[in-house]
Amino acid sequence: xLTQQMPECGKLRVLVCVSGGGTNLQAIIxxxxxxxxxxxxxxxxxxxxxxxxxxxxxKKAGIEGVxxxxxxxxxxxxxxxxxxxxxxxxxxxxxxxxxxxVVLPEEMISRYRNRxxxxxxxxxxxxxxxxxxxxxxxxxxLERGVKITGATVxxxxxxxxxxxxxMQKAVAVKxxxxxxxxxxxxxxxxxxxxxPRAIELIAAGRVKTAAGQVCIEQEKELDEI
Length: 225
Ligand code: GRF
Description:
The chain has helices at 23-33, 53-60, 76-89, 106-111, 135-144, 179-203, and strands spanning 2-3, 12-18, 40-47, 65-67, 94-97, 116-120, 148-155, 165-172, 207-210, 213-216. The chain has 225 residues and is α/β, with parallel strands linked by helices. The strands form 2 sheets. A 7-stranded mixed sheet has the order 4-3-2-5-6-7-8, with helices on one face. The protein is globular and about 45 Å long.
């Protein structure tokens, strides 16, 4: 079994990648401010869009924000190189994709194997994979008529939402839900709780992986996180 990304000493250096509003980033910032991220520091936020409100949230929290937009590069390869350089400059121990709508370069996935996590707004393997992002996930859940949905934090591998599952939390679907209402409930009741908790568990060295499965040591002790 492997213990994930414990730095030799000091706190886990966390880099957060964002594309939009950044409410998940805010949940991480708030957890840090509330003392619930004892073993992690937020070192940089990277956005792929200059207008991402998440950059504003980073600024307000005193975290360095960087924008690397594909629009500023002649092709995908040049964008990937610049993005990877911005990642490496931050020397992260853990990379958190918090609503980051960019397919990562394969080189980055193998370089940071089991050091990149993503939050997905459904209970994987339901409503995930190519095309399932943002409101589309909740539209599909409502269309299928599921009574329970939720969120998943997982390690990122070469597939789309296929990496080892770290944590999941269920959320009830209500009869008159719209995709927007359901999206908000999944965020409030699952995403904003799970993501900071997963980061602290990893930072505390409690997350182990073996054969594509994750096990979390002594999670009960971490109820406070
Ligand atoms: C969240 O629903 C997250 O699960 C998904 O993208 C959304 C990002 O929202 N991957 P925000 O930018 O954190 O507000």
